[in-house]
Amino acid sequence: MDPQGSCLPETLKVASRNNDVHGITAMTLFADGSVIQVLEGEDNSVHSTFTRIINNPAHTGVLVVADESIESRDLCGMSMGLLNLDSEIFLNLPSEATFFKCSVREIKSRVRPGSVQDVLVQFVELATGER
After folding, report:
1. In the chain, how many domains are there?
2. What's the rounded Cα separation, in Å, for the pair 91 and 26?
3. How many of the other CB atoms lie within 10 Å of CB of 126?
4. Which residue range is the domain that position 93 belongs to?
5. Of the ranges 13-17, 47-51, 55-59, 114-118, the best mean pLDDT one
6. In this structure, what is the dihedral angle of CA atoms 34, 39, 43, 46, given to the nearest 10 degrees?
7. What confidence score (pLDDT) does residue 30 get?
8. What does the alpha-carbon distance between residue 93 and residue 16 come to, in Å, rounded to a whole number?
9. 94 and 28 Cβ atoms separated by less than 8 Å
10. What predicted TM-score, i.e. pTM, was given to this entire model?
C-alpha cells in the first residue's frame, strides 16, 4: 500500500462489506504505508479471507504474526475497525467502518485483554511514543 493510503478508503469499504457477509470481525492499523490487521471469526472464514488478502496484488510483504484459536472475540461488533495515524485519510473513509482514535487508553477500554490488545497497544506505542 502506498504511504498515503490512497486506496485505503475503498479497500476498507469492500472489506467491511465482505467481513459482514462472512462473519469476520477485524481491526486494521495503518501508518506510513504499513498495515497490521487482526481478523477474527470461524477458522474457514478467516483463512479464506486471508487467502483473498495475500492473493491481492496490492498487498505485498504479508507476514503472519499469529494464527491461533480463541475462545471468544476481542473485537466485538467491528466488521472493520481502523486505527490510523494519518488524520487526512479519516476524512475519506467509508461510513460503514467503525473507528476509534489512536489512544492506548481507549484500546484497553474497548478491546479485551489478550494477544489482540497487546498487538494494538504495541503498534500505537511504537508509532506515537505513547505509553
Report:
1. 1
2. 20
3. 10
4. 8-100
5. 47-51
6. -60
7. 75
8. 11
9. no
10. 0.62
